[in-house]
Amino acid sequence: MPKEAVFTLKLESELRDAFAAEAAATHRAASDLVRTFMREFVQRQREAREHDAWFRAKVQQALDDPRPGIPNDVVMDETRAIIDRIVAEKA
Predict the structure, then answer these.
(1) What is the rounded CA–CA span in Å between residue 33 and residue 19?
(2) pTM for the full predicted model
């Protein structure tokens, strides 16, 4: 991929020196590492946004569901019965 832009940033000289030393220790150019970090960050942010949109859509779908809700105590009683049954089967 051709390099078409320059990205300048300000940081502490100690951090710059430590980063350069660690990059050299791994035999990689600091700029290659920064590009990798940036790509990974962009990908994580996109995935997080996509997941958030998916999750919000699922919540809205549930809120829009016309069926009556199930009270929490009923769900918890049913869940406890399932757990108790599984525990009893393993005993």
Answers:
(1) 10
(2) 0.67
